[in-house]
Amino acid sequence: MPQFPERLRRLPARAAGVLAAIVLAACATPGGEAPDIFASRETHAASRDETWFVYLESGKTGFTERSALEAMQRGHIANFQRLFGEKKLMAAGPLKDPTEFKRGIVIAKAPTQRELASYFQPDQYVRDGYLKLNAVPALVNKPLATEGIDSSGIEEGRIVQVMRGDKALASNEAAAQRAMLQRLVDQGSFGAWYTLEAGPVAEVLFSRNRDDRALQQALANLPAVKGGVPVAVWTQWFAKGVLR
Predict the structure, then answer these.
(1) What is the mean pLDDT of the chain?
(2) What's the pTM?
(3) Which H, E and C letters describe the chain, residue by residue?
């Protein structure tokens, strides 16, 4: 991962306001050949647009020239603006992974993983391997807000990730867990909820509540968590109004 200027590493303020702009879900119709830019080698085919949850992850290192980095950053943001205008992007925002491996998330719609990859061809960070896309199909239980968004500013919230256990939950436990998560969303403890179909993360929730301990406690009685599955709570930034 390139070394961002300090203001971007701490909180990419003005740029993040654009990056974190939340737009309406729309059909994706990109064309052209897509590079192999995925951290995961899994492929997924679909006959219609579906939702993809994408982690932007650190790739190669060693690119340090400040002016070039800033140009790449501008192009990175411009590509998100393009996707915004083409109604392919549902959400995007930087996050704070304690290991600095995951750098941000993107939620987009595309019929296939290869089609999704083509969205990032103009983005030099991704095209040149400084960022990798780790994308999996996702079930949208409750989406991030798409109306009344102020993309000129940002707000801090939390991304909460319930990891996937080594063993699948029994059907009754899985049903109980979904019911508990739905109840927490209905009660307003979490403002958005996505279920990932593959990978180490099973459930992703978003909250405006910045009390990490309270968020952990809210999920403590989930069957998976009681069985020893960890919950990761990280700082996440979005445009104002995205987090309910």
Answers:
(1) 83
(2) 0.82
(3) CCCCCHHHHHCCHHHHHHHCCCCCCCCCCCCCCCCCCECCCCCCCCCCCEEEEEEEEECCCCCCCHHHHHHHHHHHHHHHHHHHHCCCEEEEEEEECCCCCEEEEEEEEECCHHHHHHCCCCCHHHHCCCEEEEEEEEEEEECCCCCCCEEEEEEEEEEEEEECCCCCCCHHHHHHHHHHHHHHHHCCCCCEEEEECCCCEEEEEEECCCCHHHHHHHCCCCHHHHCCCCEEEEEEEEEECCCC
